[in-house]
Amino acid sequence: DALGGEQLDRLVARLLDVLAHPELASRDASAGVEARRLEATAFIDDALVQERIMTAPRSHLLGHSVSDVVRHASACVPVPERNEVRVVVTSGALGTFRVEFVTRDRVGLLAREAALLGQLGYDIGRASVVTWGDGVALADFVIRPGDPDLAAPDAADLSARLRVALRYPPATAPMPDVTIDFDDHAVPWCTQVKVQALDRRGLLAAVAAAFATSGVTVHSARIETHGALAAATFDVTANDGTKVPDAVRLKVRRALESGSAPVRLAARRAARPLPPRCRAPESGAAGAALGGVG
Fold first, then answer.
1. Contact, 84 vs 264, CB < 8 A?
2. What number of CA atoms fall less than 13 Å from residue 47's CA on the CB side?
3. Contact call for residues 230 and 124 (beta carbons, < 8 A)
4. Which residue in 131, 148, 151, 183 has the most C-beta neighbors within 10 A?
């Protein structure tokens, strides 16, 4: 079937964006990504894990160590069942814990994961999120107890609690002081969103819920905290796979200013169109930062 005029215009605009970013599509850039893939797959024999690595987004491959890439890919094999939530909890340095969630991607997932950790008394120090084109989503959180006497979270308990939380829409308190900037030029196939704010419990959940309730899909994210400040970069699209329009950006800002009230959200995101190359192995979703997914 012939492409409609609007679809053709979108494809042309994306092609022009790619051509305007030679650093993301150049031979050297592609060689660097391919070298990371080969380095990671050399450590494992499982063909399904190797395939997961080969199809991981470029931002994930370049933004993590080889050991992290291998661990994340291994955690996603086999593909989780529709309502399955896998959780792995390990101890880290300086009293921190690492919590990794693997499940099927859906609207508001990151918001619920971050909110759950906050409700249990943990602060998010660092986080990264990655999604694959087959609907698998992994979130990797480094958390610290808000109370020194708080023990490591129980993986089975987190899994059960998240399965319950996924039945209900996310709702968060207002965060009017959050600085949020949208950039359509940093990455050809997505809108890149940079967020800065004073670090506090519930911040990531609030940002992710604002995205979810406003019709924004998070494809990758990475969060860092620096003292009292939190900074993050998200690669996002509108739910139809296009770059985020002004009207939706306004909804996100208003949701942060007034809080995200519970609204009925789609349970799954599998049927929503994916932006070309946003998750493809050769894509270049330039890195991201902050704390949460949704």
1. no
2. 0
3. no
4. 131
Residue 98: pLDDT over 50: yes
* 3-state SS, residue 173: coil
207 falls in which pLDDT band (50, 70, 90)? Answer: very high
Structure tokens at 76: 């996603």
Exposure of 115 in the CB half-sphere (CA atoms within 13 A)? 24
191 touches 260 (CB < 8 A) = no
Beta strands in 93-214 (DSSP E): 97-104, 122-131, 136-145, 179-183, 191-198
Give the helix, strand, coil percentages of the chain, each rounded to 5.
Answer: 35, 25, 40
Identify the pLDDT of residue 286.
28
pLDDT, position 6: 60
Q: 241-254 pLDDT, tens per residue?
A: 899 999 999 999 99
